[in-house]
Structure formats: C-alpha cells, structure tokens
C-alpha cells in the first residue's frame, strides 16, 4: 500500500507543479527559501548545542518542558496551516492509477482527519 500512497503523493505534486506557472526564477526562489527555512533549524540546533553544555541542570529542568512543549505544538500546528488550505486529493485525476476506490477513500479520509483545523 505504501507504494500506492507514494505514487498518489507524487501525482499530487506533479498536478500542483503543472498547475502553477513556470518561470526561470521559480526554482531558484524555491531553493533559496528552502535553504533559509532549513538553515533556521540548523542555526537553532547549533545555538542549542553550544549553549546547553554551559547551563546548570536546574536551569535545564526549568526551561526544557516549555521548550519541548513549543516544539511539539509547532510540530502539530504548522501542518494544519500548510495543508488545510483546501488541499485534498483530486480524485478525478487520480482514477487513472490502478488503486482501489476504497484505498483512495481511506487516504482522503486520512488526509481530512490529519489536516482538519
């Protein structure tokens, strides 16, 4: 089933990519934004790795729960903002794939449940 799910995800990506206008600047801007986005995470990880060893255990016990709560809240909330903006499977375009209707339905229900605000 995972090969079918990956195929559907790939098809959705291609449908979205083919729907958007193509310019020469698009991939360059997307690459720069991706590097900045992931660079923020790398920078944050490096900052934590350099600061945490110098802190006392009492300070870590005080701030670690709040930090973990922020990380897990981010992990749960951001996908809701990025995926619940009307995104779902375009079933009429995916019916050409040899995937049973119940699998497409199950995948659509899963997407709706995991992205519903």
What characteristics describe this protein?
mainly alpha, 5 helices, 117 residues, flat
Q: Which SSEs are present, and which pair or pack?
A:
Elements: H1 2-19, H2 25-51, H3 57-83, H4 91-94, H5 101-115
Description:
The chain is mainly α and 117 residues long. The protein has one domain (2-115). It has helices at residues 2-19, 25-51, 57-83, 91-94, 101-115. The chain is flat, with a radius of gyration of 20 Å. The two termini are 27 Å apart. The relative contact order is 0.12.
- Between the first and last Cα atoms, what is the distance in angstroms? 27 Å
Main β-sheet description: none
Binned strand content: under 5%
Rounded to the nearest angstrom, the radius of gyration is 20 Å
Order of helices and strands, N to C?
Answer: HHHHH
Instruction: Please give the count of helices.
Output: 5
What's this, in brief?
The protein is mainly α.
